[in-house]
Amino acid sequence: MPFNTALTRKLGIKVPVVQGGMQWVGYAELASAVSNAGGLGIITALTQPTPDDLRKEIRKCKSMTKKPFGVNLTLLPSINPPDYPAYAQAIIDEGIRIVETAGNSPGPIIKQLKAASPPCVILHKCTTIRHALSAVKLGVDFLSIDGFECAGHVGETDITNLILLSKSRQVVPIPFIASGGFCDGYGLAAALNLGAEGINMGTRFMCTVEAPIHWNIKEAIVGAQETDTQLVLRKWRNTSRLFKNETSTKAYEIENDPKTTEFKDVQPWVSGQRGRQVFLNGDKDYGVWTAGQVVGLINDIPTCADLVSRIEREAVESLKKVQSLIVDEKDIPAKL
Ligand SMILES: Cc1cc2nc3c(=O)[nH]c(=O)nc-3n(C[C@H](O)[C@H](O)[C@H](O)COP(=O)(O)O)c2cc1C
């Protein structure tokens, strides 16, 4: 049964489930599988070394699905930033009109994407209401509200989704989707009830047949508990939620040693390149890699098609079940 929310209508998708951008995971294989399953798949721009490589990846994805898909562009603080305008231009030139933006100072890139003809639909991910309201002023179409449960950059305010989503419903004047901690249809139903138009998932989609990462890592997720994530880099106000392993534990210990004041002391332990190797060599301890608290709820490695249809079924069933709790007063049995 198709859903009818602001997200499904605007993006032309069947199930209001988005696969969020994921560095070293969000390739055409995964994005096309999610879109073919009825959700919105997203290619992660910065997994491609150059804007030209991104063009090729977009073309590859188009050859794998006829359904809508998007591209994530993450703007991270860096001494030598990637050529973001060139990545955005590649997205526009290749005809992509759905973009997930995330990170710092997105104004100029949002302006560039909105100047395309027709303009891009922008889902902007943020972890605070303050940032959400700033993005509204920049003209984004949807906010992707990322609670403290989420994988990756959790922000510095530590507000979980039960509060963040309800607050969004109260004060955010544009549609939003719920991100962080979702893996099933019960979560989708809850998010819809809190005022969201759909959900965004990262960790759950990493643990699917089509995610192009080593099978051992998917099994590590299945074996993990909700307590198996670790927050690092708080000292530098760049807090990231990682899968708890030997390397993240070492990084945490070094960071929290009172003698550590400089980022360079912890840098080798949080290297993104070593994290990338984890996905290739299947050694979960080799480097740090991103995962959310939802690892504790993930118990299998389904195809994206099975996962998305299961989410759809569970959401419909659980919404009907809750609806059935509302009865006519005359149907309430008398007390014994
Ligand atoms: C391995 C991995 C890499 C990620 N990389 C990015 C990224 O490059 N850009 C981004 O905006 N979000 C990134 N995220 C965050 C996801 O897009 C999504 O917001 C997050 O996973 C939601 O939380 P969940 O994992 O509980 O579903 C990443 C998440 C994972 C698991």
Structure, explained:
With 336 residues, this protein is of the alpha/beta class. It has 2 domains: 6-212, TIM Barrel; 229-281, no CATH class. Helices cover 40% and strands 14% of the residues. The longest helix is centred in the C-terminal third of the chain and has 20 residues, at 304-323. It is globular and about 70 Å long. The chain starts with 5 loop residues before the first helix and ends in a 13-residue tail after the last helix. The mean pLDDT is 97. It binds flavin mononucleotide (FMN). Residues 20-23, 25, 44, 72, 74, 102, 125, 146, 149-152, 179-182, 200-204, 206, 289-292, 294 line the site of flavin mononucleotide.
CATH class of the largest domain: Alpha Beta
- Beta strand count: 11
What ranges have pLDDT less than 50 throughout 5 or more consecutive residues?
Answer: none
Proportion of strand residues? 5-15%
Largest sheet, described in full?
8 strands, parallel
Total individual domains = 2
Q: In CATH, what is the homologous superfamily of the largest domain?
A: Aldolase class I
Categorize the overall geometry. globular
State the secondary-structure class: alpha/beta
**What is the annotated CATH architecture of the largest domain?**
Alpha-Beta Barrel
Helix content: 25-40%
- First and last CA, distance: 41 Å
Present as ligands are:
flavin mononucleotide
**Number of continuous helical runs:** 14
Radius of gyration, whole Å: 20 Å
Residue-averaged pLDDT? 97
Secondary-structure element series? HEHEHEHEHEHEEHEHEHHEEHHHH
